Amino acid sequence: PFNEDELRSNAPQVITCNEYQREVAVSQNIAGKQFDRVFTFDK
């Protein structure tokens, strides 16, 4: 979760975790282009 400074500066969320679908999504912004990568995991 974001801290107060990150919320105030409207920082982008770069990592999201979905435990139900067992995946982690990583968002990157490189040279003005957004790249999303999804990694699946098992327990």
Sequence-ordered SSE layout with sheet pairings:
Elements: H1 4-8, E1 15-18, E2 23-30, E3 33-40
Antiparallel strand pairs: 1-2, 2-3
**Largest β sheet strand count, sense and barrel closure:** 3 strands, antiparallel
Radius of gyration: 13 Å
Beta-strand segment tally: 3
In terms of DSSP E residues, the strand content is over 45%
Total separate domains: 1
Described by the principal axes of the CA atoms, the overall outline is flat
Please tally the helical runs, counting DSSP H or I stretches of 4 or more residues.
Answer: 1
Structural category: mainly beta
Unreliable segments (pLDDT under 50, ≥5 consecutive)?
Answer: none
Roughly how much helix do the residues carry, as a percent range?
Answer: 10-25%
Kindly report how far apart the N and C termini lie. 22 Å
Nearest-integer average pLDDT: 85
Protein name: Kinesin motor domain-containing protein
GO molecular function, one term: ATP binding
Keywords: Motor protein
Domain Kinesin motor: 1-43
